[in-house]
User: Which sequence fits this backbone?
């Protein structure tokens, strides 16, 4: 019987490469601008994508959404902090006594607006990465990592999943202790005392998970799948990496602060980047790695990649053509009222492309679900025949 390619699961509605291009297209303008109008537009588009994901109701999605809410709450402190510490601007809201250290002086509307734009920017970036982690699992991302980044990718994947796992464990432990009769709605002092067993259980669970993970990684030979390298070759490789990175740093410095030396600086940057790429490629050849790729590139992946490439291209060209296109600086001599470019706004709307390209919109999704249920129901009987 001829084997059939695996069908994409709910979390792999698009090819991982297309998802990575999308996150680059969404994150680049969000990191370049502090314009609240553009940031709100990006946030709405990313929110639409998050709401349209099939796995948005999973425990993982709930953990990431809780993390985004926590991050949004914490970033709101940037508004009063910026308003109390930066006393610049023409729109004076009120004035604190000048004798008060640090916070004394005029509280301006420009400081409030800049703090608010910073808060919106951080929240939007958190939402972008939360959407990526709900759309793709960590194992899929690790398969895309080049060989020389496999070990670092495993470490990053563990670090990224730490907080969502902790939030999920917190809710599970609290629910279990509530069923056992513990109450967490007492007064302030009682509430702190009642939270003690909750945090003890959370700490114990985290330690057990860490020990289990360490044993699993050790049993699978993590870090021991590289060929033996002579000490001299290893030393030369490390020296070459340091030389390339040093040349890159010097080239960037000269290109930024010595415009007259720009041709030589960019030549040094190109040589350093090329040398670093060759060194990393050689190091990747020493890693013994095998993987099984089940991903299929479809037409909707091409559309998503094309829209992401268009956003990236327009963003880079706009930044080069008009350096202040994404700049928002409410303090004098700037204006507290943000500018809005219709072309930029239209390009940012393309961030919502996954919503319109999801399989549920391009093809009848219920048929796939029914087919999967029938396959799972008939699998045991086929195995017994």
Assistant:
């Amino acid at each position: 019987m001829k084997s059939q390619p695996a069908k994409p699961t709910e979390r792999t509605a698009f090819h991982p490469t297309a998802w990575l291009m999308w996150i680059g297209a969404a994150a680049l303008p969000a990191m370049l601008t502090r314009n609240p109008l553009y940031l709100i537009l990006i946030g709405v588009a990313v929110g639409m994508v998050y709401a349209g994901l099939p796995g948005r109701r999973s425990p993982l999605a709930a953990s990431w959404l809780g993390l985004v809410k926590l991050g949004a709450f914490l970033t709101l402190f940037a508004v009063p902090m910026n308003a109390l510490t930066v006393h610049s601007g023409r729109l004076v809201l009120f004035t604190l006594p000048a004798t008060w250290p640090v916070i004394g002086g005029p509280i301006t509307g420009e400081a409030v607006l800049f703090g608010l734009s910073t808060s919106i920017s951080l929240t939007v970036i958190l939402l972008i990465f939360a959407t990526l982690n709900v759309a793709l699992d960590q194992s899929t991302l690790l398969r895309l990592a080049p060989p020389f980044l496999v070990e670092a990718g495993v470490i990053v994947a563990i670090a990224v999943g730490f907080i969502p796992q902790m939030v999920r464990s917190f809710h599970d432990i609290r629910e279990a202790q509530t069923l056992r009769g513990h109450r967490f709605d007492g007064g302030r002092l009682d509430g702190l005392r009642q939270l003690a067993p909750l945090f003890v259980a959370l700490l114990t669970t985290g330690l057990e998970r860490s020990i289990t993970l360490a044993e699993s990684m050790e049993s699978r030979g993590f870090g021991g799948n590289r060929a033996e390298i002579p000490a001299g070759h290893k030393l030369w490789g490390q020296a070459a990496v340091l030389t390339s990175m040093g040349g890159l740093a010097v080239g960037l410095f000269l290109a930024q602060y010595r415009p007259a030396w720009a041709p030589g600086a960019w030549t040094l940057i190109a040589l350093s980047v090329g040398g670093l790429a060759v060194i990393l490629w050689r190091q990747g050849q020493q890693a013994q790695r095998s993987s099984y790729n089940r991903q299929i590139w479809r037409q909707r992946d091409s559309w998503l990649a094309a829209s992401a490439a268009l956003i990236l291209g327009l963003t880079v060209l706009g930044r080069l053509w008009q350096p202040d296109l994404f700049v928002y600086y409410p303090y004098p001599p700037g204006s507290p009222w943000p500018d809005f470019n219709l072309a930029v706004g239209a390009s940012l709307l393309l961030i919502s492309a996954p919503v319109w390209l999801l399989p549920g919109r391009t093809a009848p999704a219920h048929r796939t679900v029914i087919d999967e249920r029938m396959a799972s129901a008939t699998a045991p009987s086929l195995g017994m025949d």
